[in-house]
Specification:
- By secondary structure, this protein is an alpha+beta fold.
- It is 24% helix and 24% strand.
Length: 85
C-alpha cells in the first residue's frame, strides 16, 4: 500500500453501524449503568449514529474473534469525513 492510497479519519467523526438484536441489547445494558438513556440516535432500521471513539468504548469489550455479532462488520462513513493524505 502506498501513502497516496491512505486517507485520514478522525475518531471524533460520526459513523453509522447496523446493530443486531444483541447489539441493541448490549447498548441498553451499557447505558443502564449511566442513567438508562443512550445518547446514540437510532436512524434507519437498526443503524445507530455515533462517534467512532464511542463505538470503540461501547463495543470494544465485547469485540473479539468468534464473537456473537452485535453489529455488522461493515460500517458507513460520510465521504466528507475522509481526508486524503
Amino acid at each position: 500500500m502506498k501513502n497516496k492510497d491512505l486517507v485520514e479519519f478522525n475518531l471524533n467523526n460520526k459513523i453509522w453501524v447496523k446493530l443486531t438484536k444483541a447489539g441493541i441489547d448490549h447498548c441498553r445494558g451499557y447505558f443502564m449503568r449511566y442513567g438508562g438513556k443512550s445518547p446514540f440516535k437510532l436512524t434507519t432500521k437498526e443503524y445507530v449514529e455515533l462517534q467512532a471513539w464511542q463505538f470503540i468504548e461501547v463495543f470494544g469489550p465485547i469485540t473479539h474473534h468468534g464473537m456473537h455479532p452485535a453489529y455488522q462488520l461493515t460500517i458507513l462513513i460520510d465521504k466528507k469525513d475522509l481526508q486524503t493524505k
